[in-house]
Design goal:
Length: 295
């Protein structure tokens, strides 16, 4: 069987793979958003900018200091996580008792500032980042050629996403985090430093965005606009999965990536809007999202 619905099998599977890679980025980014919203109640519009900064850290580290991809996978999340610490401690902590709209407006403003700074420094033309030598080439699976780097992106995303879900949902640390956001006074009474926990949570979400940025650097061009081009779709993924639902963000991100890939095969004109059409349908049927909790 060399065709599926009249489409060559290799082309069909290749498009599915591309959808799965995109879905991996959706899952990683929406996971960071879900962690920050679910535990802190902040709609973090700066998430796309943090993703972009992570990619630029990897590119600049290679160009200026010769730091390779594998080191950047650790370095970029640490640096962007430190930036997240500074944002939370200097700006966001002042807004926790106010309407969530203020946090949304603040992070939206930060996103514009970061994007403007990087556009001024690097321009709008994209920078290329080479695929690491160990992941170059492709593997022949018989029915298709699988690029090694794209397979790595899917694997790394799944490991990080499921690891984060396990820590938050199945460990004592995760239980403490959730309790600290639901009843901070009670948790503080047990001697736990809630402000530090909140700060580290935001930093963790920022680090996840940076990790996704480093993964994306060899796949797409590194540009100041890469975050703003993706963040709207990622917000739609979070809404469909359920605001604050960790597992919902992971599964929805991967699933919508595949749906987007299939749409490009059968009806390419709709591929840019299919996620938003699904979001509208889901919100009409289940306003809390597929995995969200109805109030």
């Amino acid at each position: 069987m060399n065709e599926i619905f009249g489409i060559p099998l290799q082309a069909f599977l290749g498009q599915l793979l591309l959808g799965l890679v995109n879905g991996s980025f959706y899952a990683l980014l929406s996971l960071g958003l879900a962690v920050i919203f679910g535990l802190l109640g902040i709609v973090n519009f700066a998430h796309g900018a943090l993703y972009m900064i992570g990619a630029y850290v990897a590119w600049y580290a290679l160009e200026r200091f010769g730091i390779n991809y594998w080191v950047s996978l650790v370095l970029a999340p640490l640096l962007v996580g430190a930036l997240g610490l500074a944002i939370e401690r200097t700006l966001l902590k002042r807004l926790y008792k106010l309407d969530p709209l203020y946090g949304l407006l603040l992070t939206f403003g930060l996103a514009l500032i970061f994007e403007g700074l990087f556009r001024h420094e690097f321009g709008v033309s994209g920078q290329t980042y080479p695929v690491p030598e160990a992941l170059q080439g492709a593997t022949n699976l018989g029915f298709m050629i699988l690029p090694n780097y794209r397979a790595w992106v899917v694997l790394a995303s799944l490991v990080v996403c499921l690891g984060t879900w396990f820590v938050i949902e199945k460990t004592r640390l995760g239980a403490t985090l959730r309790a600290g956001t639901e009843n901070p006074a009670l948790v503080q009474a047990f001697g736990i430093n809630v402000p530090r926990m909140v700060m580290l949570t935001y930093a963790g979400g920022a680090a996840l965005a940076a990790f996704a940025g480093v993964l994306a650097a060899p796949v797409i061009q590194v540009t100041p606009l890469m975050g703003s081009n993706l963040i709207i779709v990622v917000f739609a993924v979070v809404v469909i999965g359920g605001m604050g639902s960790i597992l919902g963000s992971i599964l929805t991100g991967l699933g919508l990536g595949l749906v987007e890939g299939l749409t490009k095969v059968f009806y390419p004109e709709a591929s840019s809007i299919v996620v938003f059409v699904i979001m509208a349908i889901v919100l009409m049927i289940r306003p809390a999202g597929l995995f969200g909790k109805e109030k």
